[in-house]
Amino acid sequence: MKLYTKSGDRGQTSVKGGRVMKNDARVEAYGTLDELNSFVGAAAAQAATLEPVRALAAELVEIQQELFDCGSDLAFASPAEDHYKVTADMTARLEGWIDAHADAAPEIRRFILPGGSALSASLHVCRTVCRRAERQIVTVAEAHQIPEEVLRYVNRLSDYFFAAARSANAALGEADTEYVRSAEVFRSAPRKEQ
User: Fold this and answer.
1) 88 or 75, which is more confident?
2) What is the value of pTM for the model shown?
3) What does the H/E/C string look like for the chain?
4) So where are the chain's domains?
């Protein structure tokens, strides 16, 4: 099988149900998800070599599969609800992982800079690329009908990367890098008298 088709030599690419220019907003969105997938793969490879966070690698590999699902769902030129792959269960599972990672990290009081361990920094790269993908998906949604669960999933995914970056630092014995000019912007809700 040849890796090149020459069909994109004039700047067009195929979507499910048609052809568009390679800089089409839809292609930008799922292309950024593909970029994110590469960064997630790099983070998973790092996590797999570190005993305290080895379980994180399995979560990240599952997320890689789901990012392909997101890209697949965005590649439909017209709505195709019967063929969408991203489900509410996937988003709910992410929420469970977010809660577990948040519980494993120290209480947050100030804004956090990407850093601490190399793995945490990699997960912050994933977070920021994920936010860019989300912005691009919103742009597509302004002009086309898209699968709404993809947007929910990607929105939750950036929260996952933030929580995972903090729990990775905690597991590896590294402190988060706080933004030193930040006030204490995150406070626990006061406990109610019983």
Assistant:
1) 88
2) 0.87
3) CCCCCCCCCCCEEEEECEEEECCCHHHHHHHHHHHHHHHHHHHHHHHHCCHHHHHHHHHHHHHHHHHHHHHHHHCECCCCHHHCCCCHHHHHHHHHHHHHHHHHCCCCCCCEECCCCHHHHHHHHHHHHHHHHHHHHHHHHHHCCCCHHHHHHHHHHHHHHHHHHHHHHHHCCCCCEECCCCCCCCCCCCCCCC
4) 15-178
